[in-house]
Amino acid sequence: MSFQDYVTAAQKFFDDLVDKANDDELFAGGYLRGHFDLAVGYAQVEGEDLSPHELNENVEKSLVKAYRNGELTDADKTHVVSIWEQIKALS
Question: Each residue of 71-91: pLDDT tens digit?
Fold first, then answer.
C-alpha cells in the first residue's frame, strides 16, 4: 500500500469512528488522529517519501513521548492502543 493510500484509509477510519464509537473511543481516536496527522504533515513538509511502516514508526515515537509526559491516563492509553492497532492493520 502506498503512503497516500494508507493516509486516506486511516482518515476514513477516523471519520467513521464518529458514527460508531463511544465517548472514550472518540476521545482516543481524536487524540490519535492528532499524532497521526502531525506525522503525516511533517513527512509532507520535509518531502519525505515514507512507507506506511515508517509513518507508523513516527507516530509511535510521538505516542511514546506523550505517554512519558503523562498526557494520558492508563484507561485512555488502552483505548488509544486499541484504535492504533486497528489503524496499523490498514497498512
Answer: 999 999 999 999 999 999 998
Q: Note the pLDDT of residue 76.
A: 93
Q: Residue 62: which domain range?
A: 3-89
Query: Helix 74-89 vs helix 23-46: angle between axes, to the nearest 10 degrees?
Result: 60
Terminal Cα-to-Cα distance of the chain (whole angstroms): 6
45-49: long-range contacts at Cβ-Cβ below 8 A with a sequence spacing of 24 or more? 49/3
> C-alpha dihedral over 34, 60, 28, 85, to 10 degrees?
130
Q: Is 8 left (phi over 0), alpha (psi -120 to 50) or beta?
A: alpha
Number of domains in the chain: 1
**H-assigned helices in the chain:** 3-20, 23-46, 52-68, 74-89
52-66 pLDDT tens trace: 999 999 999 999 999
